[in-house]
Write a structure and sequence with these properties.
The protein is mainly beta and 981 residues long. The chain is 6% helix and 40% strand. The protein is elongated.
Length: 981
């Protein structure tokens, strides 16, 4: 067709050059559409990199300006950019979405960058029409760099393994973080997904983040406990803006200490071997696995939740799987939970297999949850069937009848030299190709004329068979469909809520309504079905009887919510109830808008007990407060939400990844215990995060409440007594050269508090809390002045100009001085000598003790214990003359070693000096039975730089020291032992 804006005398563009004239934009075709860009944010290395052999489908139209003989060209880089693909267009293509094939190699040749992709429509007369452009980012650098060892298909050895802090894990699991080191090709917008034995958490890097040396991802304590005691596998991967994947990093194994004598017994796995240690996939076949929480101690009404996690043979950690929780119908019932075969098979392998971990949580009515121990199983073998192929151009397992070419993609293989593809369809397809490299099998081309068009409106099932010397295996099936050809006389569907092709989610809170115009081709004897599809998912309505006068068909909120900020397609089919071929309408394209940041049209969470709109008076109600969460637009089952109450000094998590089970408003308790910790006039804000697609928190939309002011009754805080660590049994050695006065960590200090302390009549320098506080120093002169007296110490806190009540007092008696030790020993005058970790020798010291390496802890490289003169300046009584050294005389590698001191006599009190250059030193005092007395002592790194630390045992009634154990990596010095009976 020709319009008044066209120039029929324009030259025909046989050479692919740009035209000098174009019609005005109001008559232009719509911008092109690339599904991979919509789904991934751009085109990346796997799609258009140097090894990509496939193609990209660029959709042009729907448009009503096509005429016979038109050529649709795709220009890459605006109207003057190179032509990367083209196809012949006819008038019958009006109103249709037409795919134009662009080979990946053509895009790769142009290179990386952001490009305006334009549909150039060249008429038979030479007139040219340009569409508006689609902006496409092409990114060929992979976060973390390319994998240096492609033989490990899912692991990138170029990434550093993650670190876990604290390390090693202790009893407190409330602040565990995965630390990811800076990596190659880091950019803003990168998404780091950390996996703790399958539980995944994601952060997105900002422009400020990219300069950091590392990144931390917090792991909730509840997830760590769900995995249970034992080894947890930790890894991470990075996806960039266009979904280039780094692959997974080499994993780190973490020992999780959960000593819980009250833990329930590990569950039983019905299909495991007799010893409950192995699942054989060869024996399991296609069956599922049954988990039985035996001896669970559950009462009627108890809830039991099972968690299945694992590590695949290749080191990847699939997401945990939890079947629906079950309620017990009678006391001590043993329910059965089904784990689908696919979850189990994902962990298998023939080179040692993967590992599965199964645990459960039981909650009796009115009681707190109790976690079970973990059952660890090896998953060995593999299914005899190969993984299914796929059709590269299929969207939601369908391809349009008008598609010119499609590609059947065969997954990487491990063996074989020939692959044969078979597609069962009314017009079947079969072809066979050789494989020179099984890891890169060939694709099979499905042409529009030979396969796609003849099978329009029909289902198809694709399989392939791999053969080789003494080998033959057939894949699982891949089922897809070829849509019926669009019928020109079926009208284009619409969406009632759409304005100019845009769907605002706030305007469609309960979903959308498809509008089918009146048509004589739709009869009451037809079934009409509407399909809405997008990258986030699709939904097909139930069949409704046709109405030639027009139809309105409702589509629920779920599919719209899953496709926020994405393009969707709407199409309907008309099928005679009595049987016959289905007819499909043209495809209508719409864009689903996103919610605005903290969208004012979305109801915010509110605190029910608030006075007016903004004050929470804790004196006006008892118990927990209630947070009322109104129904939000597009609320649907399967979504997840997070709810948090926050102040400037901390937050209270109300709900974490909690599933939505209906479409109604709900309430959550705000714990009174937490509210009682807040100061008067504290500002409190509620934050609701909703993952509309049911995915990770990183994809959730955030909605924040109005600010609330807490009105609390403020009671003056009580401060506990100070502590002098050097005072033993309330006695302080009068000979000490110094001592510390410490404010206990339980003291309710705030940042900025001014703290003044006293040791008897001696005022100590004032300090400022942050909110922690360094110790106050008590000098030798102060100690000497108080010899033979009981000294009372206190501290006083001044907050915001107000002096708070003085702390509880600490009374200590300062001894009269003089020698108070029953025995002392240093190494002065001892013969210079040493023993090696590779012998069973020991050093003996004159009826005091002997020293040796612990034979139960092998030392990786040779280390020594020896006596030598100290080369530095003496410090107090320490490091004068000879000392004992542990390590290597010339090579200070960090080698872990354990050294034992066997005391010839048992002592109530023991002190000695230790120094280390760089690494911590761990000291344990043990009785004759080998049991640790008190706690393990830690000497911090760096004290060896001209410094030392005096180490002393915890005095415990009825306990005496017989053994001293020292664990260290660095070379260390030991000197001057003091003993008291």
């Amino acid at each position: 067709m020709q319009t008044e804006h066209e120039h029929p005398d324009s030259p025909r563009l046989d050479d692919g050059g740009a035209a000098t004239h174009a019609i005005l934009p109001d008559a232009a075709p719509p911008p092109p559409l690339i599904h991979e860009v919509d789904a991934n944010g751009g085109l990346g290395y796997d799609l258009v990199g140097p090894n990509a052999a496939g193609s990209i489908g660029v959709i042009v139209g729907p448009w009503d300006g096509f005429v016979d003989g038109d050529i649709a060209r795709i220009r890459w880089g605006g109207t003057t950019g190179p032509v990367v693909g083209s196809r012949l267009i006819n008038a019958e293509d009006n109103g249709k979405a037409i795919p134009v094939t662009v080979r990946a190699s053509a895009i790769h040749a142009i290179g990386a960058g952001t490009f305006d992709v334009v549909h150039e429509n060249v008429g038979a007369s030479g007139t040219v029409v340009y569409s508006p452009s689609l902006s496409v980012e092409v990114k060929l650098s992979v976060p973390g760099g390319l994998d240096p060892d492609p033989s490990t298909e899912t692991i990138n050895e170029g990434l550093k393994p993650p670190e876990v802090v604290p390390w090693p894990l202790g009893a407190d699991l409330s602040n565990v973080r995965i630390v990811v080191a800076r990596y190659l090709n880091i950019e803003a917008g990168d998404r780091i997904t950390a996996s703790w034995h399958g539980f995944q958490h994601e952060i997105t890097l900002s422009s400020a983040d990219v300069a950091k040396p590392s990144f931390e991802i917090a792991i909730p304590e509840d997830e760590i406990r769900q995995i249970g005691a034992g080894t947890a596998t930790v890894t991470y991967r990075i996806l960039d803006r266009v979904t280039n994947s780094s692959k997974w990093a080499p994993h780190t194994q973490v020992e999780v200490p959960l000593p819980d004598p009250g833990a329930l017994p590990a569950p039983r796995v019905k299909e495991a071997d007799t010893d409950q240690t192995v699942i054989d996939l060869g024996t399991l076949g296609t069956g599922d696995v049954t988990v039985q929480p035996v001896n669970n101690g559950g009462l009627k009404g108890a809830s039991i939740t099972v968690t299945w996690t694992g590590v695949a043979e290749d080191g990847t950690t699939p997401r945990p799987y939890s079947p629906p929780p079950q309620l017990l119908t009678y006391d001590y019932q043993v329910p059965e939970f089904i784990i689908p075969n696919a979850e189990v098979a994902a962990l298998g392998g023939t080179a040692g297999g993967g590992r599965a971990s199964i645990a459960y949580k039981r909650t009796n009515p009115g009681d707190t949850p109790v976690q079970s121990k973990r059952r660890d199983l090896r998953v060995i073998g593999a299914s005899s069937e190969l993984p299914a192929p796929k059709v590269d151009e299929a969207i939601n397992y369908t391809i349009p009848a008008e598609l010119g070419v499609a590609h059947l993609v065969i997954p990487p293989q491990t063996r074989g030299n020939q692959v044969t593809a078979n597609i069962a369809a009314p017009v079947p397809f079969t072809d066979s190709k050789p494989m020179s490299d099984p890891s890169k099998p060939p694709d099979f081309t499905l042409t529009g004329t030979a396969f796609i068009a003849p099978n329009a409106g029909s289902p198809a099932t694709a399989t392939y068979t791999v053969t080789g010397p003494n080998y033959s295996a057939t894949s699982l099936p891949y089922q897809f469909g070829i849509l019926p050809p669009a019928v020109p006389n079926l009208p284009l569907p619409g969406i009632v809520e759409a304005v100019a092709g845009q769907i605002d989610p706030a305007v469609a809170p309960n979903g959308i309504t498809a509008s089918i115009p009146a048509s004589s081709d739709i009869r009451a004897s037809d079934d009409v079905i509407v399909t809405v599809a997008g990258p986030g998912g699709q939904e097909t309505t139930a069949a409704q009887s046709g109405n030639p006068s027009g139809m309105k068909i409702d589509i629920g909120p779920a599919v719209v919510a899953k496709n926020l900020a994405h393009a969707i397609t709407v199409q309907y089919s008309v099928t005679p109830k009595a049987g016959g071929a289905a007819k499909s309408s043209p495809i209508a394209n719409f864009n689903v808008l996103d919610f605005q940041p903290n969208d004012p049209r979305v109801g915010k969470p509110v605190i029910r007990q608030a006075l007016g709109t903004s004050v929470i008076d804790l004196n006006q109600f008892v118990g927990d407060a209630l947070i009322d969460v109104p129904k939000w637009p597009l609320m649907a089952t399967g979504q997840l939400y997070w709810l948090t109450a926050s102040t400037a000094n901390g937050s209270q998590v109300i709900a974490t990844a909690k599933p939505v089970t209906g479409g109604s408003a709900f309430s959550e308790p705000l714990p009174r215990l937490w509210l009682n910790t807040l100061s008067d006039q504290t500002t409190l804000v509620l934050t609701l995060e909703v993952a509309f697609d049911g995915g990770a928190q990183a994809t959730a939309r955030k909605f924040t409440s109005l600010a609330y002011t807490v009105r609390a009754t403020v009671a003056p805080p009580a401060f506990p007594a100070p502590v002098i660590p050097q005072a033993i049994a309330s006695r302080l050695d009068g000979n000490r050269t110094s001592a510390d006065l410490e404010v206990p960590p339980t003291a309710p200090l705030l940042s900025g508090d001014s703290v003044a302390a006293s040791f008897g009549t001696h005022a100590l320098p004032t300090k400022t809390a942050s909110p922690t506080l360094d110790p106050f120093k008590i000098t030798a002169a102060m100690i000497a002045a108080e010899r033979g007296r009981t000294v009372v110490s206190t501290y006083t806190v001044t907050r915001a100009g107000t002096t708070l009540p003085v702390s509880a007092p600490l009374s200590v008696f300062v001894t009269a001085g003089g020698e108070q030790w029953d025995a002392t020993f240093d190494f002065d005058g001892e013969q210079t000598r040493s023993v090696s970790s590779e012998t069973k020798d020991k050093l003996e010291f004159d009826k005091v003790f002997h020293v040796m390496f612990d034979r139960n802890h092998h030392v990786e490289k040779e280390q020594f214990i020896g006596v030598k003169p100290y080369s530095g300046a003496g410090l107090d009584d320490y490091y004068k003359g000879d000392i004992l050294w542990i390590g290597h005389p010339t090579n200070n590698e960090l080698i872990l070693k354990t050294v034992l001191f066997n005391l010839f006599e048992e002592w109530t009190e023991v002190r000695f000096a230790v120094s280390s250059m760089d690494d911590p030193v761990y000291i344990s005092f043990k009785d004759a039975s080998g049991s640790i007395i008190g706690g393990k002592k830690t000497l911090n790194a760096g004290s060896g730089n001209g410094q030392y630390a005096e180490v002393r045992n915890d005095v415990v009634a009825g306990k005496k020291v017989k053994w001293i154990e020292i664990v260290c990596k660095d070379s260390i010095h030991v000197d001057f032992f003091k003993f008291k009976r």
